[in-house]
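Each record in this resource describes a single protein on a pair of labelled lines. With that in mind, the following record should read easily:

===
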Amino acid sequence: MRAVWMGMVAASALLMVGTAQANADLAKANGCTNCHTVDKKLVGPALKDIAAKYKDDPKAEAYLADKIKKGSNGVWGPVPMPPNAHVSDANAKTLAAWVLTLK
């Protein structure tokens, strides 16, 4: 029984890693990584800094998904984030949820 339990834990860990990589690939495919990196400021803020800023906000996922789609100005400094109308609503929500998991 313990072997089954350990196998389930290992499979869950692999699934989480796979999901995180898929979301990182989604960010790259949609151009997010042209301006953002996970752990340091590039043109835009580090994604982990965005996660930290909104970590206690229950509306953060919807807010960030909206900003991904529509862009923003003045939130993180003088460089505006352009709108990304090519990103589907579902992908914007997936990206926002992923960003909020980063530490």
In short: The chain is about 60% helix and 0% strand. The chain has a mean pLDDT of 86. The radius of gyration is 16 Å.
